[in-house]
Amino acid sequence: MNILDVLEKENQKATLPKFEVGDTVEVYTKIIEGDKERTQIFNGVVIAKKGGGLKEVFVARRIVQGEGVERVFALHSPRLLDVKVVRSGKVRRAKLYYLREKTGKEASRLKEKFVEKQGVVEKGQA
Predict the structure, then answer these.
(1) In CATH, which of 2.60.120.10, 2.120.10.30, 2.30.30.790, 2.60.120.460 is domain 18-100?
(2) Mind listing the pLDDT tens digit for each residue in 11-32?
(3) Cβ neighbours of residue 75 under 8 Å, at least 6 residues apart?
(4) What is the pLDDT of residues 76-116, one digit of tens each?
(5) Where are the domains of the chain?
């Protein structure tokens, strides 16, 4: 086995939340300010997912005071504490970059996908 593969496997998170593009999520991140730590919550719609392994990232977008705010989160980052799915969206695109042009209700109006149960993907299954 390659050394890079071993290091990558060691640093991957054991359990990952299962979410897709179009889902509204709450992202809990650890913020370090000086000697204090706190948890910051970012609510938004997942507009893109890309990469694989340790390099897997997703982009979440929300509207704050009329301005669009996007954040890129690394899925295996030690500062990413949790991702909770608030609402599952039904979309037909892999990237929802067209939402950048929308404002107000248009930007948040995605059809809801009804899912019986939302689980957690174990490492190596998906």
Answers:
(1) 2.30.30.790
(2) 888 788 899 999 999 999 999 9
(3) 13, 16, 56, 57, 58
(4) 999 999 999 999 988 999 999 999 888 777 766 777 776 55
(5) 18-100
